[in-house]
């Protein structure tokens, strides 16, 4: 294995499961306004419903309190994050933000260029989720060349 080759991942999919009181409104927001394709939907007795929406490539981003505070300061200008925040990479943060606000999201902070070279917006959305919409402004190869970026392995072996 080369230094930057990831180990084989035994996890095939990350699925975030969110309970919502207004299922139809949340489905319209995430499927229709944000544009997540519906992969499957199931209904059971008593109007029990689930819709599985394809959000593309999934990652789990772990941050410590200091990094969460830094991200909040950059994106919002004040503490704003709950324990869990969902981030969606979009091709155009300005357009996606406008679309989701028109679809019912509350704007927490408009698209802002971050030190890590992305344009991020913060929204409060249906199903009690806080969202970050992010548009990458440089490639991963460009970013990894800058100070402070890389992997934990790079920092410990560096």
Descriptive labels:
158 residues; Signal recognition particle alu RNA binding heterodimer, srp9/1; two-stranded antiparallel ribbon; 6 strands; globular
Describe this structure in words.
This protein has 158 residues and is an alpha+beta fold. It has a domain at 57-157: Signal recognition particle alu RNA binding heterodimer, srp9/1 (2-Layer Sandwich). Helices cover 27% and strands 27% of the residues. It contains five helices and six strands. The chain has helices spanning 23-33, 65-75, 93-102, 140-144, 152-157, and strands at 37-44, 48-54, 86-89, 106-113, 118-125, 129-136. The protein has a four-stranded mixed β-sheet with strand order 3-6-5-4, covered by helices on one side. A hairpin with a 3-residue loop joins strand 1 (37-44) and strand 2. The longest helix is centred in the N-terminal third of the chain and has 11 residues, at 23-33. It is globular.
The run of helices and strands is HEEHEHEEEHH
Mean pLDDT: 90
Question: What share of residues are in beta strands?
Answer: 25-35%
CATH topology type of the domain at 57-157: Signal recognition particle alu RNA binding heterodimer, srp9/1
Strands of the biggest beta sheet: in what spatial order? 3-6-5-4
Biggest β-sheet strands, sense, barrel: 4 strands, mixed
CATH class of the domain at 57-157: Alpha Beta
CATH-level-2 architecture of the domain at 57-157: 2-Layer Sandwich
Helix content percent band = 25-40%
Q: Which structural class matches the secondary elements?
A: alpha+beta
């Amino acid at each position: 294995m080369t230094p930057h080759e990831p180990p084989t991942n035994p996890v095939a999919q990350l699925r975030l499961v969110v309970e919502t009181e207004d299922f139809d409104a949340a489905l319209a927001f995430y499927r229709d306004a944000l544009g997540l394709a519906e992969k499957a939907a199931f209904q059971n007795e008593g109007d029990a419903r689930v819709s599985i929406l394809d959000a593309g490539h999934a990652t789990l981003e772990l941050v410590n309190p200091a990094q969460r505070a830094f991200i909040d300061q950059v994106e919002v200008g004040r503490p704003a994050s709950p324990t869990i925040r969902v981030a969606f990479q979009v091709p155009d943060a300005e357009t996606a933000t406008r679309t989701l606000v028109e679809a019912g999201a509350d704007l927490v902070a408009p698209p802002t260029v971050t030190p890590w070279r992305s344009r991020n917006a913060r929204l409060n959305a249906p199903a009690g989720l806080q969202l970050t919409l992010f548009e990458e402004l440089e490639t991963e190869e460009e970013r990894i060349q800058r100070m402070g970026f890389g992997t934990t392995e790079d920092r410990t072996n560096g």
